[in-house]
Each structure stands twice: as structure tokens, then as C-alpha cells.
Amino acid sequence: MIVPGSNSQALGAALAAETGRSLADVRYERFPDGERMASTPGIDSAVHRAVVVASTTADTAYVELLQLQDAAREAGADELVTVLPYMRYGRQEHAFEHGQPVSARAVARAVSTGTDRVVLVNPHEASVTDFFDVPCAVVDAAPRLAAPLPANLTDPLFLSPDAGAVALAESARDAYGRGGVDFFQKVRHSGTEVEITPGDADVSGRDVIVVDDIVATGTTMSESVGLLTDRGADGVYVTCVHPLLARNARTKLERAGVSAIYGTDTIEREVTATSVAPTVADAL
Ligand code: R5P
Fold it and tell me: What is the pLDDT of residues 18-43, one digit of tens each?
């Protein structure tokens, strides 16, 4: 049985369809004092295997996730898999200064208490898997990024905004079936300031697809889109696994001249155009 968190209802349904498992009847309630209660009132006690799928796009989603794990156990599930399509705090994987927490480790330990194993979709740092006290698998959804792209792209170039994401650009290009791959160099000066240095590839008259694991504040992508537009790219498409699009990210991208934005359903947003369900299903 697939037990979705409130932020992963569409992905939960897609995963149920993909795997042929039933989709749990879940309720997300809130008490007058603000406390939450996520429950599965109709869960069948004959169900021994439960998959809780919950993106933690808000702090409260961790509480909801722990509640759903507990509810599934309480109902009799003796094997429980937790899928974190998007893991909030996953980018805080080390303490930068004395006295800071390793937040990714703290939340990973909490999640581990209620599950037999964990599946993550493209965590920013693969090392976060070590923080879980149960087996943790990583799946790569980058090939899914090809699906929503227009079929008739002109001489496409798949480009990552930094060297760390070039494997994602290669996977997306391979899945698309044609095109070149290049990457920019990026230096981050602050949470909302980055300096991008373009590569040598000639982008004039070409369609460029900028590929990254996440669009958070949109700073990285909007800087990249602006550079590519200035250098004569024809269309500039942005695609990512996790379309967080915090604050005014969408506006920044539109002002930079983006042709279209695509993301997966690890974070259910307006730009979600493809599902990671087939990729996750393979890991269950
Ligand atoms: C960083 O290395 C990541 O791959 C992303 O490029 C980054 O987290 C995106 O953040 P933002 O949208 O805030 O620039």
C-alpha cells in the first residue's frame, strides 16, 4: 500500500498506478492549537508492506511523515519503506561553523526510527545516505527530465550551471537522444548571489537546456539564462529534478527570458511536467 504525505499526493497516486499497489485513504488534519494529525483510517490490517512517500517541503512535513510511519506500523505493516522524493535539510550536510548542527543527519536519524529502509531521489549530496540508521538507496530521476522537452529542439545543448551537475545534463541528453553537453563554472557568494563563468561552447542559434538538481531561489538558473540569452541562444529551457522555486524564483526566471521551466513531481508545482514514479518504483 502506498501512503502519501500531503505534499506528495499526485506522486503517491502515480506510484500506486505504476506498481499496482493500492493507494491509502489518508487524512491530514489540524487541531485548534496547530498540532497536526496525519492518519490512514481505512488502512487494511492485512497489508503487511507499506510505502510512505512524502516530500518534506516544509518543516511540518517531517512531523506528518513520522505520523504516517507510526500509523502504518500501528495498523500492522511489518515492512515499511519510506520514500523521500525531496529531502528538506538535505543540503545542510555538514556544520560550517562550530556549534552548528548537521541538520541532514538530525532529520535522517528521526526518519530512520520509523522505517526499515529509505529511498531518496537525487539528494544534493549523496553522502547524506550515511546519516540514516537504516539502508538508504538513491535513485536518479535525471532521465525523466527529457520527457517534457519539445521534440524539435534546434541543435540542443544540455548544460549544467556548475561542474557538479554535469552528470545530470548527460543523463537528460542521453534520454533525449541527441545534443551536446557542456557546463558553466559557478562560485556562490551568498544564498542569493552567484557568479557564473560560461564555457567555450557556441550557443548562438541553438536551443539550450539548463539542467540542475534543484531550482531553489532561482539565482543560479536566472543568471545562467541571462548569460545564454546574451550570447545568442535561441531558446533557453530550464529543467530540474526538484522545482522548489522559493520566493520570487519564478519571476526571476521569467525576467531573465526563460523559454519554459520543467520539473518533476518530487515537489508538486505548476511547472511539474514529469513523474519520478517509474524511477522510484524500480527501487521498491
Ligand atoms: C547547487 O550546487 C545546486 O546544484 C543548485 O545549483 C542550487 O542549490 C540552486 O540554488 P538557487 O536556485 O538558490 O541558486
Answer: 999 999 999 999 999 999 999 998 77
β-strand partners of 39: 27
142-265: what CATH class? alpha beta
Look over the chain and give the mean of its residue pLDDT values, rounded to a whole number. 95
pLDDT in tens, 217-269: 999 999 999 999 999 999 999 999 999 999 999 999 999 999 999 999 999 99
Indicate which atom in ligand 1 lies nearest the CA of residue 219: 14
Question: Is the CB of 217 inside a 6 Å radius of any atom of ligand 1?
Answer: yes
Contacts of 9 (CB under 8 A, 6+ apart): 268
Asked: is 2-141 a CATH 3.30.43.10 domain? The reply is no
* CA 215 to centroid of ligand 1, rounded, Å: 6
Burial of 231 (0-12, 13-18, 19+ CB in 10 A): middle
- Per domain, the residue ranges of the chain are 2-141, 142-265
